């Protein structure tokens, strides 16, 4: 190949020379390509914004639900507190009434029994105020007064403890003064010295008795 042909091949064509020598066209093509890609790039932030708004909406709903639960819990707490205060006040009233009843019971425990004894005193005073009375009249008056006293004892559950001779000795109801030789069986009551009394099955005073030691042995 000749040098002229080689030189001719190495020279650029007119079209290639126009593209190379026209930098404005190159920048224009670059701008168009960049402009084509810009809408897609701008669409992405819009999508992320929409996603952020959706997340904010869910968070607001949850916050509102929590506020509703808190409000309901506060209402229930207020109701429970009111019930507690009412119950406490009622318990205080019950305790106060109970204390008053106990105080009254202690103060007026013998009120009923005292009322029962007043007629007995009236009868005794009436018997003493009579002049020129015979022994028979005095005896009848004492019997009437004793009946009134027995009636007062019965109404107030006050009972006699009067064991019979030969009855078995009961340490809960009887008080042994001594052991004496007697024809009664050993360990039984040989003699009653004083009656006892119980109040509603509670011993006020045991009966004082003498207990039989049996018959002495004859040597």
Give the CATH topology of the domain at 158-199 and 207-213.
Answer: Nucleotide Exchange Factor Grpe, Chain A, domain 2
H and E order: HHHHHEEEEEE
Mean pLDDT: 79
Q: Output the strand order for the largest sheet.
A: 1-4-5
User: C-alpha Rg, in Å?
Assistant: 61 Å
Low-confidence stretches: 1-35, 37-54
* Count of individual helical segments: 5
Topology (SSEs and partners):
Blueprint: H1 3-10, H2 14-21, H3 23-107, H4 111-129, H5 135-155, E1 158-161, E2 174-180, E3 189-194, E4 196-199, E5 202-205, E6 207-212
Helix pairs in contact: 4-5
Task: Report on this structure.
It is built from 5 helices and 6 strands, in the order αααααββββββ. It is of the alpha+beta class and 219 residues long. It has a domain at 158-199 and 207-213: Roll (Nucleotide Exchange Factor Grpe, Chain A, domain 2). The strands form 2 sheets. It has a 3-stranded antiparallel beta sheet. Helix 4 runs antiparallel to helix 5. The radius of gyration is 61 Å and the shape is elongated. It starts with a helix and ends in a 7-residue tail after the last strand. 5% of the residues are buried.
């Amino acid at each position: 190949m000749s040098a002229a042909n080689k030189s001719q091949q190495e020279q650029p064509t007119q079209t290639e020379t126009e593209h190379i020598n026209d930098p404005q066209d190159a920048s224009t093509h670059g701008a168009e390509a960049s402009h084509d890609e810009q809408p897609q790039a701008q669409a992405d932030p819009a999508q992320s914004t929409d996603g952020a708004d959706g997340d904010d909406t869910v968070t607001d709903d949850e916050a509102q639900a929590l506020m509703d639960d808190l409000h309901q819990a506060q209402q229930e707490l207020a109701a429970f507190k009111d019930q507690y205060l009412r119950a406490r006040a009622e318990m205080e009233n019950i305790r106060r009434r109970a204390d008053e009843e106990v105080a009254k019971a202690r103060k007026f425990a013998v009120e009923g029994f005292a009322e029962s004894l007043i007629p007995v005193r009236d009868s005794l005073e009436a018997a003493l105020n009579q002049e020129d009375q015979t022994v028979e009249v005095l005896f009848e008056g004492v019997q009437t007064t004793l009946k009134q006293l027995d009636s007062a004892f019965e109404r107030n559950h006050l009972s006699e403890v009067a064991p019979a001779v030969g009855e078995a000795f009961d340490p809960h109801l009887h008080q042994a003064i001594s052991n004496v030789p007697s024809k009664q069986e050993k360990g039984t009551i040989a003699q009653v010295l004083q009656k006892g009394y119980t109040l509603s099955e509670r011993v006020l005073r045991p009966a004082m008795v003498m207990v039989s030691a049996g018959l002495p042995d004859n040597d």
